[in-house]
Write a structure and sequence with these properties.
The protein is an alpha+beta fold and about 600 residues long. Among the domains are: about 80 residues, no CATH class; about 70 residues, Arc Repressor Mutant, subunit A (Orthogonal Bundle); about 200 residues, Nucleotidyltransferase, domain 5; about 50 residues, no CATH class. The protein is about 40% helix and about 15% strand.
Length: about 600
Amino acid sequence: MSAPKRESKVTPDLRIRKGLVAVSGGRAVVVLGVHKEGIHLRVQGTDEIFWADPSMIEPFVSGTSARTIRAISDSDPKDEKEAANWCDTLAALLKQSNGVVSRKACAAVALELGVHPSTVRRRIKNYRDNPVPASQLRAIPGPSPGSRRLRPVAESLIDKAIDGTHLTRERPPLSAVVRRVAALSKEAGIPAPGRKAIRARIAARSPMEVAKKRLGGHDAHAQHAPSVKGIEVSRPLEAVQIDHALVDLIVVSAESRKPIGRPWITVAIDVLTRCILGYYLSFDPPNQTSVAHALEHASFPKQPWLKSLGLDLHYPMFGKIECVHWDNAKTFQARDVRAQCERYGIRVNERPVRSPHYGAYVERVIGTMMGAVHLLPGTTFSNVKARGSYQSERRAVMSFQDLEKWLAEEIAGQYHNRPHKGLRGLTPAAAWEAAWIGKRGETILPPMIGDQRAFVVGFYPSVTRKVTREGVVVKGLRYWDPCLTPFINDQIDHQIHYSQRDLSKVYLRHGCGFLDVPLIDRSLGAFSWWELREARSELKARGKLASSSSELFESMQRQRSIQIAAESTSKAARRKVARFPKLEAPAGTDLVDYAVAAAAFDWDDGVIE
């Protein structure tokens, strides 16, 4: 019988006795005594003494021993039988010699088993460390994983180079670490370790700790932290995930056909059926208005919207959401958004800070949508490397309206009707339909919020204002309507909501609904919050403040004219024009200008004498 070249070592049995060096609470300890009351321990290197029970003690494995612990080869009945025979032979030998084995006894056993006496001595040592058959199993040949065979000074130089060069946010390549090790080795007067040894030392570091140093905590957790178990849901609308994304496509102007830029999309997905309940597409960066209209699109039937796009599609997903899941972005943390969710009984489940994997469902759906977008002319792809030499702006052909229609077709016509891996091969549309069939086979319609307008407006940002004889002031603009007359000087702080997309009117909360309150000057039509900011900035640059709302509106009109004129040459101007509200300015001849005092009615006018 030939002896193996190396024997494996396994963690020995824990025999708690006085003088044992062990581990308790992550600290090396020495057993001072074993008593009925417990085990008396002292922390090594200190005077700290405490009591513990056996469950608090772990075996201590020194650094050298830890590196020599080998992975045991695959289980083999022949090897296991051989190990058991060795264990029995060594146990009998030690018992016969009272624990002291002479050279003559080792030689006799070696002759009997056909091995060298040194093999018997090595096996006796393994048996003393751990008297079980596993200690006699053959080990995998080669050095132990993680073992280091360089000189200590060389190891210290490599560690220094890794810490100072490799583990930095600049993320230098391996060659930079190799050069640094070579320089340090030259200073120390020792041969420089090879590239392979340095790479092995880097690979031995904790991937999480390396990623934290090179990528930052956020990306490190996203790549290396354990993913959470999927959300457990039993019915549709029980959990809906919502997120924003920048669309990987350059959109062109519908008029000039020149590039504008990339729009934003806010997507809501039902976790159970993986259906896209709704979305909102806009050139405005994500804000409360985006959240409001995404939730509107998700919560209500879509036939009017599809009709406005001129599409004949089956998009039956809608209903009152039970719980929304979103991240910690400002748009979702806004006071009005949370208050409106509470008002309608919609629970809010926020994603833990800096934990993107908690939004896995909506992230994957957005990734799927972007994958389809990457097939369109003008795509920016997911990154610069993927884009390569592709000229996105030069090849862009789709307008915002084209993208709206294409997305509707992609979602309702394609995505909802493709088998989904997470649904065990079912399509999202089939999963949605199956979820709304009753026990008797009847079709059930999802619950729906009764007042669509009040639901959406309640998500808009708001301010509190008292109503005076002159109306209410929001964003420095004065709003008035005869409906405010009962509230004049009532000394109540009324909640006023406004849309960031259209400041031509505001909404005063009254009871369960809202009252529309338009601007006193109604000649301008729809305009957005960003337009108002730019107009004020333009007046400020001219060294003056608007003395009246008409002067401010004139500035906005001038800017609109300039931007429309510049649309043919400036991409920034085209993007600003694309962000104008869709509503057209109403004709001034059909409106009453409340800024002008009304003349008294002449009762004699038109009377024929």
